[in-house]
Amino acid sequence: MSARIRILEAAERRFAEDGIEAVSLRQIAAESGQRNTSAVAYHFGTRAALVGALYEHRMTPINERRLEFLAAHPDPDVRTYVRALVEPLAETLTDAEKAGIPSWYLRFLAEAMRYPEYDPASVALERPEASSIRALISGLQRATRDLRLPPGVFAERMRLLALLVITSLADRERHPGTGVGTQTLVAAGAAILSDPQRHNLSDPQQHQE
Question: Which class in CATH covers the domain with range 1-45?
Answer without folding.
Answer: mainly alpha
